[in-house]
Amino acid sequence: MSETRPRKALIIGAGPVGALTALSLHRRGWQVELWESRDDPRGKDAAPSNLRSINLAISARGLEALRSVDPSLAEQFQNEAIPMKGRMIHHVDGKQESQIYDPINGQCINSIGRPLLNQRLVESLPSEIKIRFQTKLSKLDLNDKIAFGESVEKKSDVVVVGEEHDDGKIGGEGKGNTDNASNKKGKGKQSMKEDNEPTKFDLIIGCDGSWSKVRNSMMRMERIDFSRSFIPHAYIELHMPADPTKPGGYAIDKNHLHIWPRHSFMLIGLPNKDGSFTLTLFLPFSSLSTITTREAASRFFHEHFPSAIQIVGEKKLLDDFENNPRGNLVTINCTPSAWSSHALLLGDASHSMVPFYGQGLNCGLEDVRVLNSVLEKHKISATTSLELGETDTELELALKAYSVERQADLQAICELALQNYTEMRSHVLSPFHHFRRLLDSV
Ligand code: FAD
Questions:
Q1: Where along the chain is composition biased (Basic and acidic residues) (predicted)?
Q2: pTM of the predicted structure, to 2 decimals
Q3: Which ipTM value was assigned to this complex?
Q4: Peptide bond before 126: cis, by omega within 30 degrees of 0?
């Protein structure tokens, strides 16, 4: 009988989904290698004002997934996150209206910065996992299960979710990165050096986000149904600093998700631990293109968001508006999400959704939980006696089962996210809306 050895997973992308996948497979006894094109986030300051990136609402779905890998992780994030028990609607006249999500059972969603969440997950990875930062997947041979990386010598310090790599360029830039016309912050210069040595694997897992290179390679091997659609809105991140005169620094209520709904556009605000709020403006690109001067931007904010000007200060709000990137918002569906026993997609690489249901990351983390349960059900052991490069029929069946099990749920949640797009910016203003929600929760 041939000797057994641990199964080897090569994971591309150390975003939140890649990091949790690495931890989970390591705990199952697999040999794990993780490549990330960005810098090592460990030990860095992930405070909201230092790294521009979105705030996430982590929900029961995401917490359950974290718990399934390591209960202490879920506990840690719950301690670091801020519970939001409802929406606070900010009307144009300055009136605020609280709409509690679950008045009966008090369920909440929880605000946490993506950089902090990502950093904590990467910090939780044990030293047995080989992590290569500043390493970008450059070439992939799925048939022979061989990958090549290239080292990225300098990356931008700006972290924007869904940043595209080579294949995702839309006229030079893409989702989650910048609008070509209005981005004032260039990326840091990069120089690449390709590996000479191939890296072999049993299974490559693409956790490389919306512009996944692993997915591109899979699509050359298999008839994969793939769709991608953009909504007309851009997102721009703004920052509401802490107010030292207020308790905890919170200028507005800390335990709400704040929404300034204006029908065809909206501003939202999620709390940070330091008393600041991360604000996100969602506005159609067509409207953005009409705001071409600082004066026009000032008129826009005075007309639609006077209370935000009052709290943040006009200069700060306009500086952020002018300087921060314009991100695209995209829905991606990809089925199946596995190819043979060789490749699998998790997280945004397999399903990107617009952020209005606050479930993109939660679903990505849930992918890891479901994958674990499928590996368990199919009794996929941590070791194999196959040679590296051979097809693993047991694993192939398990990955197929995973893909089938996830398909309907993922399509449904992408659809719900799109529906909540109109709900948040418009329906929440209806006087009957809150009454209906209250009835729904009984
Ligand atoms: P990503 O976070 O995109 O990470 C992918 C990683 O792969 C990156 O680190 C990247 O550098 C790396 N990478 C890419 N290509 C390569 C390569 N070739 N080689 C090596 N590394 C590579 N979700 C929620 O659940 N709740 C929310 O409230 C929420 N709010 C959001 C608000 C906004 C404005 C946006 C845009 C998204 C929001 N989301 C939310 C969605 C959430 O941010 C994403 O679903 C989540 O970040 C996906 O995680 P991921 O690990 O799959 O991918």
A1: 163-172
A2: 0.90
A3: 0.99
A4: no
